[in-house]
């Protein structure tokens, strides 16, 4: 059984991978996947803390995050489809409508 | 003589209240709904309101004659320590006489305007304004404190401005409106200062509190720039500045002739009968104050005399029929101030009342002729008139009555009032009375001359304006001639209330006004034989003027150009109105414009104000351009900023902890 520190390191690694992908990738779908990875990092963190402190509230938050992530993925993907329909692209550097 | 006992009524009286407020209500309704709903019926409401207000003022006048005085406050606007400003009414013989005259003349002129203004696109506007004017004029006359007087004073000035510039498409009309307003403002500035000074020294603005306090200041002096200035003189002089502006006395007289750009009924009502007499009314109202300073009385008399003489010399050289009458108005106002300046307040007030009728009649009669010629390029030019006697009999006869009245022919109103002024000037206890009498006597002849010049040029000889009328010249519609007839009756009868005792009459107006204005300030009992002589002299002067006009304009027309050919500089001097317009143009208008352009526009406006305004805009612009670089529109960049933000927040949070 891994220790709490190992779980936390795993969570941070997952989060940073997600963050890196979120900031650097141009494809919107990849960006969405990166957000999912960041969320998964959090889930691992919460679950581990809950397990080690024998407190159930961490698990509850985990379930909420999973439900929220599913909803977010659905909305995000449908937005990506809409953007593609309208602008014929899913690359974020080509979507510059908000440029000031 | 036993002084009449008055019963003082201090309760709110709805009838007195309604006299000014009926025209106000009519005006507001007409102004709001006139354009859409009344259109060519816009005259109905104001005329109805004026009619009732006239009836009410007659009722109030009768009550005042029977010994009642109304003095009540209806509303206190400001109340701060000893300053009290509010709305209140004072109906004493003076204001009762004034409001009856104002409502009567105003009503007749409203009726006349139905014909004169018919078909004008701004018909409703005209009636709304003229009704509003009547409201302010009545407020001015009925006020029981100086602040309310000032309200009416400025209100009539506003309406005068609106109505002079009534045909605002015409540049000359809108310019004349501005000129009238600005020149009056100069006087009103003095007037406002006068009110402040009065409050400073007397501690109140209400007449009934001012008069008992006057003895306290009668010997007070204040030091201004090293000079000892008599306090009553200071207050009276500042107030008189306002009167000079509003009553168009030298040196602020220049606006009145230009004000003739307005419609003729306006000239008749505002610039002849009512508003311009406000100054005289104010001097009469505050007569105890003016009398405290004999220097002030001298100034009033001398300014009146100068204006009187000056305008009487200008009038015969002008060709615009309304301008001639305007100069005659200046001259008659000069008479009223002369009367006030020699202490003959009653005579001044009496002349104000009779003058309202015959001068309004002169204007409306002229308006009737102008209405006939309104297709001409300049319908006011008396050179295109002539021979109208047989085409416009009613206009001719009524105008003749007005002219006889203003010329002081016995039996007509003008004779009694003018004679009263001349007689009381002659017998005045003030040393300049004789001089004033002499000026008045000469001007009487000149008045007759230029008034009959209009009559002879417009109604005798050959009609010269054929090209401007369709078919034959014709009489004006009945809606215009009936008011003329009523005013003509007024121009005769109005004088009969003040027949001097020397002629076996009873001077009702004097008995009526004595409680307010006091007895005429004469040296001793006036001897009747001298009075007869004075009367004879002034009648002779009038007849001589008429004879001269007849000689020059009918008998020997070649004499007409005598002055303009032989004494050209003098003629030009008179024709150019003593060069007052030019003088003011070069000494006041040009320097003001120069200062505005070179200093106000160039330095203050362009540099300082625009610098601040444009500078702040530019600052925002520069900041925006700088921040624009960050706004790439790419999501990744925004998320990076969010991350940086969070990190910075956390660092700050940890650091502060």
Structural class of chain B: mainly alpha
Q: How many E strands of chain A?
A: 0
Major pleated sheet of chain A: none
Which class of chain A in CATH terms?
Mainly Alpha
Q: What Rg of chain B, in angstroms, do the CA atoms define?
A: 29 Å
The total count of helices of chain B amounts to 25
| Domain unit count of chain A | 1
Q: In percent terms, what proportion of residues of chain A is strand?
A: under 5%
Order of helices and strands of chain A: HHH
Quickly count the helices of chain A: 3
Question: Uncertain regions of chain A: pLDDT < 50 for 5+ in a row?
Answer: none
Principal-axis shape of chain B? globular
Architecture per CATH nomenclature, i.e. the level-2 architecture of chain A = Orthogonal Bundle
- Terminal Cα span of chain A: 53 Å
Folded structure, characterized:
The complex is a heterodimer of chains A (100) and B (657). With 100 residues, chain A is mainly alpha-helical. Chain A has one domain: Helix Hairpins (Orthogonal Bundle), CATH 1.10.287.3510. Chain A has helices at residues 4-24, 28-53, 57-87. The N and C termini of chain A lie far apart (53 Å). Chain B is 70% helix and 5% strand. In chain B, the strands form two sheets. In chain B, strands 1-2-3 form a three-stranded mixed beta sheet. In chain B, strands 4-5 form a two-stranded antiparallel sheet. Chain B has 657 residues and is mostly helical. Chain B is built from 25 helices and five strands. The mean pLDDT of chain B is 86. Classes of the chains: A mainly alpha (100), B mainly alpha (657). Chain A binds chain B through residues 19, 22-26, 31, 92-93, 95-100, and chain B through 627-628, 630-636, 639-640, 643.
